[in-house]
Structure formats: C-alpha cells, structure tokens
Amino acid sequence: DNIQKLSPSFVTIYNESLLAEKLGMTSICGMGYRKALEYLVKDYSVKHHADVADSITKMPLSQCISTYIDNKRLQTLATASTWLGNDETHYIKKHTSYSINDLKTFIKAFTTFIDSELAYEDAFTLISSSK
Question: How many Cα neighbours within 13 Å face the side chain of 70?
C-alpha cells in the first residue's frame, strides 16, 4: 500500500512488465522494469526533496540516484537495477552474467527498503503525535 501511494505509476508499469514477461514477451519486459524503476526512484526522491521536484523529474536516472538517494544500500540497488535495465534496451549487453531475474530481484529489494522506510516514517509520526 505504501509503494502504491508513493508511486502508482511504478506499480502499474511493473505489473504490465510482469504480465508481458508471463506472456513470453521477454524482449520488451526488461525495458518496462527499467521504466518502472525510474518512476519509483524519482517519486521517492520528489517525496524527500519536493522543493526541487521539477529538476528531479527532468534529470537522468543515474544522476537522480547519485544526487537524491542518500542511503548507500538503496543507491547500490537502484544503480545495479538501472544498469541491468539499460542492458535490456541496448543492442549489446554489458553485464552478460546477469538476467531479468537479477533485475527483478534488485528492484524488489529496493522496493522493500523503501516500503520499510515509509512504514518507519508512519510509526515515527504516530509516536511523535502521542507525546
């Protein structure tokens, strides 16, 4: 629910990509996963840096990750996901020992970290308002 509230486009695009993969459309689903990731990273960045939302939405994904994602684990997962997603869009793959499954694993881990952080923020708000 937290991810859906934060980035409904991520959820939609990710689910469409998953459906494409299940239908055997493996040559296009990776691009979809990469696009979904971009929405999630930028929506997450905008949530924490709303004052520069316009800049965030226009910048390249890798620059957004390095500039607005402070947590090193999140940076690593997002960067690895971006690289593998980019491999799915280009003629020559750079990371041939990785697959769509690795891309999905990294995106899922990234999403889990964000979901945990959002739950923490909700809990913190609850506790702070009770004092």
Answer: 3
Rounded Cα gap, residues 93 and 123, in angstroms? 42
Phi, psi of 89 (to 5 degrees): -105, -15
Token pair of 33 as six digits: 């996963």
Q: How far apart are CA 130 and CA 97, in angstroms?
A: 51
Report d(CA 70, CA 101) in Å as an integer. Answer: 26
For residue 31, give both structure tokens.
């691009």
pLDDT confidence of residue 123: 94
Q: Is 70 helix (H, G, I), strand (E, B) or coil?
A: coil
- Contacts for 107 with CB less than 8 Å, ≥ 6 apart: 14, 33, 36, 37, 40, 77, 81
Please check whether residue 85 is in contact with residue 10, taking contact to mean a CB–CB distance below 8 angstroms.
no
pLDDT in tens, 6-60: 999 999 999 999 999 999 999 999 999 999 999 999 999 999 999 999 999 999 9
Question: What are the φ/ψ torsions at residue 31 (nearest 5 degrees)?
Answer: -65, -35
pLDDT at 129: 85
